[in-house]
């Protein structure tokens, strides 16, 4: 069995080895730049871990794992354009460093390169890999659209929010694992279980992110605490505060959401106080635990010895107790 750190180094080395260069350089330099600015490489590591879990060699699963990573970065590059984000991982975003048109084309090229990497899979496994990958890619687009739609919708239900983060974030984790399972010739039942593990872990991961955005330690979180509050982003916490708030709390929350001119620190402090008065954090923590339990139950169902599943279990636990 490999450690997560070992596999992260494998992915980082393979990305350097592949280079992703070509002409015109104005198209490929932004791709090289974006892939070089860091990231934990967790999604491709999941593909390698799943392949290893079911007995496949790491070498056989590297192209598919790289495809997962390149696809993930393609989505981030285009997300940055839609969000008009100036920074990604502390570095200039591609559309800021170059321009929007270059960023769009670079993202398109990355998507194509992801499929080129998938084409290196064994011919007998490629149809199943493509089916899993294509379903995931479609759902990621659907989830992104839902997230944008939520910006103009006043009332978003818990069910709608969970579905949005399932599609936008979680299905990529599930697909990364299932693709590794396909490479390892896992049974359909085990493939379904490891996919479920990834999806439920992903939902719990996003809920943890929602909580950290409000309650995280600024020195550890790595980005502005309260950013979601400042942007009126519909997170699990805001959705439930809107549902539970009454009288003065409801009016105060509405006023902050409608305010166009405000002191950011004051808004974060005031909205956080409303969350605390409604016990929103314990509610979010409970729902996060429920999805984590579903993930662990799916992992337990996989027909592999417990010791071989320990790395994946530790992977999930590290994600869900993180402070950043």
Describe this structure in words.
This protein has helices spanning 4-18, 25-36, 42-53, 58-83, 94-97, 100-118, 126-150, 158-183, 188-215, 218-221, 227-230, 236-244, 247-258, 264-277, 280-301, 306-320; strands spanning 87-88, 91-92. The chain has 324 residues and is mainly alpha-helical. A hairpin with a 2-residue loop joins strand 1 and strand 2 (91-92). Helix 3 (42-53) runs antiparallel to helix 16 (306-320) and helix 15 (280-301) runs antiparallel to helix 16 (306-320). The chain starts with a helix and ends with a helix.
Mind describing the biggest β-sheet? 2 strands, antiparallel
How many alpha or pi helices?
A: 16
The structure class reads mainly alpha
End-to-end distance, in Å? 27 Å
The succession of helices and strands, N to C, reads: HHHHEEHHHHHHHHHHHH
Produce a short descriptive summary:
With 324 residues, the chain is an all-alpha fold. It contains 16 helices and two strands. Helix 4 (58-83) packs antiparallel against helix 6 (100-118), helix 7 runs antiparallel to helix 8 and helix 13 runs antiparallel to helix 14.
Keywords:
single chain, 324 residues, mainly alpha, two-stranded antiparallel ribbon, 16 helices
